[in-house]
Design a protein that fits this description.
Strand order of the largest sheet: 1-2-3-4-5
Structural class: alpha+beta
Order of helices and strands: HEEEEHEH
Number of helices: 3
Length: 105
Amino acid sequence: MKEEFLNLPLHKNEETNRFELTVDGHTAFIDYEEDKKIIKLIHTESPEALAGRGAATALIEKTLYYLEENAYQLVPLCPLVFAYIKRHPEWKRLVPSKYLRLFDR
């Protein structure tokens, strides 16, 4: 994660079911669904003003750390999150075993 994002807080907005990261007044977000201790990350979006800065990657990383720290399991339905985990297989530790075979494709 780029240094400019390290101290920015991740916000779990339970009203909108989004993890949010605000950078320079612009908010990137990941839509989620939660069922007990399983979170499905559905869609990641970053404003055009943040394009190419690494905000979406920082958001994904912060969200994964949040999930781990709070003992959630992850179902990565968002293609961006899925691709991130495929590039960083250490995060498969959050994915329930029945979904791990999807990473072999």
